[in-house]
Design brief:
208 residues; 5-stranded antiparallel beta sheet; two-stranded antiparallel ribbon; LIM and SH3 domain protein Lasp-like; Znf_LIM
């Protein structure tokens, strides 16, 4: 005996039979329960053993819990109990040593952290942190006096034209700074007018 269609309740013959959602349907009766669009095995969505199209498939709605006095009391009680358990566990674990397995990954991470800490430490303290600066004053003693370098300044009495690459030309009245004596006959220094540095005859200049 042929079964009945779940939609029209008429007899379903094998040639038009569609078995879906634990029911037997005519292919033409397998439609969306909401809009009546004809469906097939590829585009239907079942809900409570009834076919729906994608647009009218019932959406699951969240259940709203009433904010009653009893619910608020239970929530507060649960929160207080959680805090008590946390405090109890905290005091039990306080001062206990937690062992960490010495696996290769853990050791590598510890090594990287150690290297990063060393780099940050030395960057903050600067290059002079490792050794004491010898110029710093010892506690209870005054710092050593700083030696001021005397700047030698000479003025040219005569003109002189340089005759070698390491010499410098001077003119009468030129001011020469950073003068140093080379020997009894020659000095070297920088001519302020030209900015050049070189040797010149010692008997062509005099101290300022």
């Amino acid at each position: 005996m042929n079964p009945q269609c779940a939609k029209c309740l008429k007899t379903v013959y094998p040639v038009e039979k569609l078995n879906c959602l634990d029911k037997i349907w005519h292919k033409g009766c397998f439609k969306c329960t909401e809009c009546g669009m004809t469906l097939n095995m590829k585009n239907y969505k079942g809900y409570n053993k009834f076919p729906y199209c994608q647009a009218h498939y019932p959406q699951t709605k969240h259940t709203v819990v009433a904010d009653s006095v009893e619910n608020r009391r239970l929530t507060q009680q649960s929160k207080q109990q959680s805090q008590v358990e946390y405090q109890k566990q905290f005091h039990e674990d306080k001062g206990h040593y937690t062992a960490i397995s010495d696996d290769p990954e853990t050791l590598r991470n510890l090594k990287v952290s150690h290297n990063i800490s060393n780099v940050a430490y030395h960057n903050e303290r600067g290059p002079r942190s490792a050794a004491r600066d010898p110029r710093q004053a010892v506690a209870g003693q005054p710092p050593p006096p700083q030696v001021k370098r005397k700047v030698s300044r000479y003025v040219a009495m005569y003109d002189y034209i340089a005759s070698a690459a390491d010499e410098v030309s001077i003119m009468e009245g030129d001011v020469i700074t950073n003068v140093e004596k080379i020997d009894d006959g020659w000095m070297e220094g920088r001519v302020q007018r030209s900015g050049k540095y070189g040797m010149f005859p010692a008997n062509y200049v005099k101290p300022m």
